[in-house]
Automatic annotation (TrEMBL):
Gene3D superfamilies: 3.40.50.880. InterPro entries: Class_I_gatase-like. The lineage of its organism: Eukaryota, Metazoa, Chordata, Craniata, Vertebrata. Signal peptide: none annotated. It comes from the Eukaryota. This is GAL3A protein.
Length: 224
């Protein structure tokens, strides 16, 4: 039997949910590794809904679980029902939904609150020494919950290629060790069993983002 890996989504769409290309890459690479993905999302309202043609919020209201089901092709469960005992690993793709729907990082940065369901799930995998894979912005969740852990969100110096590099500095302020890595590379914190890669934190060709996520998934499955 292949490993069973929980994939936690935060909606559908880069600006208000899970980044669709990252989520798809995680699912494709898990399939390639012979692992079985179990997709979860919290049954809560999104912080807001963004019109992706304009990058502007609208007056709409949407539910994180309902929207995440689009990516999971309907095969999804309420995060509240996740049982760590039946699972071998956890992966959380990025997208602004992580910072808006799974936490309040988008509005409060290092002073953010992480959703209790999300925090409980992360702590459960950590306590049972099961690997956790995080990409793009989702490493901030670990930065907030596991002081002293080692992570990457790419580079810590802002430039055209790395427009979100200040995230690394904020994570350092939380007491984490940030390790600069290229988009096709991963960082592995063996003590905490955390595997991270930068994905769309980098302005890079999509195949490089896909390859970096592939290395992250491969290592998570290997550690499981």
């Amino acid at each position: 039997m292949g490993k069973k890996v929980a994939v936690v989504l935060a909606g559908c769409g880069v600006y208000d949910g899970s980044e669709i290309h990252e989520s798809s890459a995680v699912l494709v690479h898990l399939s390639r590794e012979g692992a079985q993905a179990e997709v979860y999302a919290p049954d809560v309202d999104q912080m807001h809904v963004v019109d992706h043609t304009k990058g502007q919020p609208t007056q709409e209201k949407r539910n994180v679980l309902v929207e995440s089901a689009r990516i999971a092709r309907g095969n999804i469960k309420d995060l509240a029902k996740l049982d760590v005992n039946g699972l071998d690993a956890l992966i959380i793709p990025g997208g602004f939904g992580v910072a808006k729907n799974l936490s309040t990082w988008a509005t409060q940065g290092k002073n953010c609150i992480i959703s209790k369901e999300v925090e409980d799930v992360l702590k459960a995998f950590h306590a049972t020494k099961k690997p956790i894979g995080l990409c793009c912005i989702s490493p901030v969740l670990a930065a907030k919950i596991f002081p002293g852990c080692e992570l990457t969100v790419g580079h810590d110096t802002e430039c055209e290629k790395w427009p979100y590099a200040k995230t690394a500095e904020t994570m350092k302020e939380l007491g984490c060790k940030h390790v600069n890595k290229h988009v096709t590379e991963i960082h592995v914190d063996m003590k905490n069993k955390l595997v991270t890669t930068s994905a769309f934190m980098c302005n890079a060709p999509i195949h490089e983002i896909y390859d970096g996520i592939g290395k992250m998934v491969k290592e998570v499955v290997r550690l499981a």
